[in-house]
Write a structure and sequence with these properties.
Elements (H helix, E strand, L loop, with lengths): L16 H32 L5 E8 L10 E6 L2 E6 L14 E7 L2 E7 L6 H35 L1
Amino acid sequence: MGDLDVQSKAGEGVLGPRVAIGFALVLTLVLGALSGLVMYPAAQHLRSLQDGPQAEATLVAAGSGCFLGGCKVRFDAEGRTVVANLPVGSSHGENTAGERLTVRYREGDPQVVASQDDVGGGGPAVATVLFGSGAVLFPVIAVWGSVHARRQRRAFA
């Protein structure tokens, strides 16, 4: 089989341990950045609106993009009608346009708004933990796999 033999020695795959470790480190950086730079601030933002004024709103744009910040609501605040985007992490992806919901907004800046159901920051907080855990898990698995491959190579040498 010579050239076509994908796994010539035990523990030695096509890519090799260095590439696997490099891949794990890149994945670690991506997950860590997603956790620390996107999801954690989103959770903090949602929690910052917990004590904001409440208003009854109508969902103007809804759908699967809500978790990524694609939902819009219309409501009356401070004597005017406001159309604002719900933030990243909104849980209203299953709702349809025209549905009513309660929102909280920042006093003095009603464009900063979040659904009453989301102001606890639960969705983004869970995502922060999951992505952060992945960022810790991938290098551990890569190091373990590298050590395991070296031990197998020594055993067959």
